[in-house]
Amino acid sequence: MSAAFLFSHGAVSKLNGIDPAAVQVHAQKINSLGQIAGEYRDASNLLHTFIYDQGVITDLGTFTTPSDLNDRGEVFGEGFQGPHSQPCFIYKNGTFQYLGALGVAAYVNCSARRMNNAGVAIGYVTGSGGPPNANSSGAFLYSDGKLNRFTDLIVPSDELIRDNLSPELLLINDKNEIIAKTVDAGRNVQYYLLTPVDAADSAYYNFEADTQGWSNAGEDILTVSTSTAQKFAGASSLAIQISTGGFGRVAVATPPVPAGRTLTFHIYLPADANMDWIQPFAQEGEAGGWNWHGNWQPLSALQLGAWNTITVQVPDEAQPLNMVGLELYMSQTYSGTVYVDSVSF
């Protein structure tokens, strides 16, 4: 019998709530919110995936194993649906979504690798039992509900395509940059950094043409404009220029965000940022009692000189929103620029 534990703030705590008859308990992934994904075998030797969140264990059921966990609490893993069928899945909002095969296949065996905080997942799938030449195997990238053959996404002139190399996808970050490995006929190993080519930003607030109604809604310490100096996607972002210390807020009025949606913010903090905290938020209108939904983040929890992905959940029962935006607080004098881009829901 084994147990999983969490080490936090100098103390070790056991992950209670797992089946007491469980054996071979493994905590495998932890995200920046302290949520943990792991697996265990029950008394019948059946494999289960579990999620630990603030002291509560959620058992996702048998015949599953987790490979990754992002900051939205989404689990990417491998399932078992019968002989010779092991599809990859994404578990989010209490629901399993099985990714299937590339092309047509009766049986699928999938290797789940990694998933970023936008829910973009990479792995390798092998399909069998389909029509001849179905071409149902290969590395994949899953995004926006679609399973893509990875080589179909590579620029044709790239050496991976030119030399007919088959990449193994290893890691993906929040900018959709991917580390891949190839092995040629001579067993020579080569590693690649694959970078997305600039494409149109499909987020509702993409700041490609203008500020889309976002403006200073706090103290007079901020100015707002579009900029090409930093971008998460597309060609430009919203630049928030800070002139001194104090409280600042940028926001857009009456955003068309439906109830129950997750707002995803991408926020770039310069390497010298010294604000105390930031908080992306959504506020309901008068019909919702001006209810506030925010995700407060201290500077110590954020990456400097990099893009940070932060989400805000709009409740299912929320009334139409009054505004969506970002708050910042600097207890000391600061002059610099923070960037917001690709705000989606």
Helix-strand layout with pairing:
Elements: E1 5-8, E2 11-14, E3 23-30, E4 36-41, E5 47-53, E6 56-62, E7 64-69, E8 75-79, E9 88-92, E10 95-98, E11 107-115, E12 121-128, E13 138-143, E14 146-149, H1 159-162, E15 168-172, E16 178-183, E17 189-194, E18 215-216, E19 222-227, E20 237-242, E21 246-253, E22 262-269, E23 277-284, E24 292-294, E25 297-298, E26 306-313, E27 321-330, E28 336-344
Antiparallel strand pairs: 1-2, 3-4, 4-5, 5-6, 7-8, 8-9, 9-10, 11-12, 12-13, 13-14, 15-16, 16-17, 18-21, 19-20, 20-28, 21-27, 22-26, 22-28, 23-24, 23-25, 23-27
Percent strand: over 45%
Total number of distinct structural domains: 2
Extract low-pLDDT stretches: none
Q: Which overall shape is indicated by the principal axes computed on the Cα atoms?
A: globular
Q: In percent, how helical is the residue content?
A: under 10%
What is the overall number of helices?
A: 1
Cα-based radius of gyration, to the nearest Å: 22 Å
Count of DSSP strands: 28
Question: Could you characterize the architecture of this molecule?
Answer:
The protein is an all-beta fold and 345 residues long. It has two domains: 5-194, no CATH class; 215-344, Galactose-binding domain-like (Jelly Rolls). Helices cover 1% and strands 49% of the residues. It is built from one helix and 28 strands. It has one helix at 159-162, and strands at 5-8, 11-14, 23-30, 36-41, 47-53, 56-62, 64-69, 75-79, 88-92, 95-98, 107-115, 121-128, 138-143, 146-149, 168-172, 178-183, 189-194, 215-216, 222-227, 237-242, 246-253, 262-269, 277-284, 292-294, 297-298, 306-313, 321-330, 336-344. The strands form seven sheets. Strands 18, 21, 23, 24, 25 and 27 form a six-stranded antiparallel β-sheet that branches. A five-stranded antiparallel β-sheet has the order 19-20-28-22-26, with no helix packed on it. A hairpin with a 2-residue loop joins strand 1 (5-8) and strand 2 (11-14). It is globular. The relative contact order is 0.10.
